[in-house]
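Reviewer 2 asked us to include a model.

Predict the structure of this chain.
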Amino acid sequence: MCTIRLFVKWCSTIEAVPTELYANVMVPVVGPENQNREEMLQSERADEILGWLAKYQYVSRDHVFIVLLWETGVRIGGANSLDVEDVDLDDRFLQLEHRPDEGTTLKNGSSGEQLVSITPELSQLLEAYLDDIRPDTTDEYGREPLLESQQGRLSRATMRRIAYTLTAPCFLDEECPDCVDDIDAKCPEAVSPHAVRRGSITHFLTNDVPVEIVGDRMDVSRKILDKHYDQRSEEVKLEQLRSYLDNV
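Predicted model (structure tokens):
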């Protein structure tokens, strides 16, 4: 439908075709249960977004959120579940806990609970955010959410909206031919938090991090990783295997 919409928009350059006809071509918003399994945030694009945020919105909540997703590959359920006390800056790790009785859950339940290591850079970012930016906020259960909103804890729906906003071309002042003049519409070029996770996993695999380590870190089995997350081309996989064998 995106392709059809673009074609109709191109046709609108012809005098006989109404200028706004393309706006009537509706592009469905794909939900998490049936979204394009090949959709992902490309590594180069992630670098551009993170670079822009580091320059213009450093240590903002949105900056922390997207860095957290990209570096750890955590699901938004995991990001939503994090409290301030789950952040260990000294030993540089995050603790993911399944707390269904307190409004936060992990996809794999208690079996998804784990410690996730973070880099010194993310640790410094979180420290600056906690010291200087994050307001003294608690949720309805008296917990201190790492990612806050005016209502307390940043919701998953808001997390999705942030991801869509930050990954849209127009966020970096680039042309987005598929966008419509509707403030509530999702940019067709933007990607979901799950696509950020998929891009993160592929990024780590492309940079020769072993599959077993990536799977453990991202809480995903080898079978699911191969089927739904690993978007490396066969050429890249071949070159990595060749490089590995050359060093044996």
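Residues 131 and 183 are 33 Å apart (CA to CA). The domain at 34-235 is CATH 1.10.443.10 (hpI Integrase; Chain A). We have added this to the supplementary material.
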